[in-house]
Amino acid sequence: MSSVPLFTSKKEFFVTFGVVLCVACISLLIEFYHYSLFIKTPLHIEKATVFNHYQKTNAKGKTYDVVKLKLDSGEELYTVSWKPLHIELKSRVKVKFEIKELSFVEYLKGFFVPSHFMYTIYEDNPPFDVRFLYRFIREQHEETKMQELYTALLFATPLSKELREDVQKWGITHLVAISGYNVGVISFLLFFLLKPLYTLLQSRYFPYRQASADLMPIVFSVLIAYMVIIDYVPPFMRAVVMSMVGFFFFSKGVKVLSFETLFSVVLGLLAFMPSLFFSLSFWFSVAGVFYLFLFIHHVKWNNKLGLYLGLDVFVFISMIPIVHHFFPVFTLLQLTSPLWSIVFILFYPVSLVVHLFGQGGILDGVVMAFLEVNTHSYELSVPLWFLIPYIALSLVAIWSRKLFVMSFLMALSAFCFIQ
Q: Cβ–Cβ contacts within 10 Å for residue 38, how many?
């Protein structure tokens, strides 16, 4: 039986859009209410969790600490300390800060405030503490860079400037950052491990049941638990929600790999969580899935291997104008990124398994050598006047194969901006 489209009539589309719009308005009103309460008191003394901590140097050569905090009331903010701080990620702190001017948009995006003091606190019943997981990973590695890489790869912790530059030169930032790749690999691993046991029980006790119907809720439960542990990383959350919606649609005979599904999930997430609108990683994730769907929509190759390789290269090239508008660093090594995307499918589950057995350092020599390869960097800065027409062309390419080819050629032409 062929799949049916998500919307079978204009009425269904407009009703759905109206519901999403109402939800968005309600969410914004709730956020504005919280914002109004927050700015009513200029001086705050709050408990918070440390989400990021790094050092910067200003133009005068003065070094200071930058700290990203998530308050217990839900707000995310940045502050600085001119004295060296020795605090771990996910540490609990008490901070005193003063709000002078704060717009509603800044409140949603995350904002900077100067702090009067900040110190570590110890609580009898703190919020869920994942630092023992970080320590479990770090203890398996001698090199600081490897400790940082694997905690980022497995728990979405921030990268230092040095490690970020190492992964950027290879064009694998999207692999180190937890995203839809991870959702796919984790889902496959869980299904692969659970299927033999399920089949054994099914043949004996419930032959009338379907494996996907029974196992996927277990897989989704694990994914949701993982999402909580890594603090709702936007790309991962998008992928999890889209997987759950896709599974529901598939069970109802609705076409899953469609632009309607993608846009519905995106609008739904934005309606419930307006702050996602300001998340760059969220939009990168959405763009990557959009170009994946665009390729599948227009390219009908029978050779599955060729289709997969072509898809990988197409998404990489198509993302270049978008990524390099925000991140101008370019190296020739980045052209090998599609290859490492394929390698990652094996590397990620292997690194996950060896860490579970306390042998995470087994690949450190190879990974360190990989990251420390020297290369020359160029500047590839895609201007806004090029990016906007490119995105517009990509969107209208949904309805035209010729425009699809033109959008790909336009993406390739972005290399003209290399300096």
A: 16
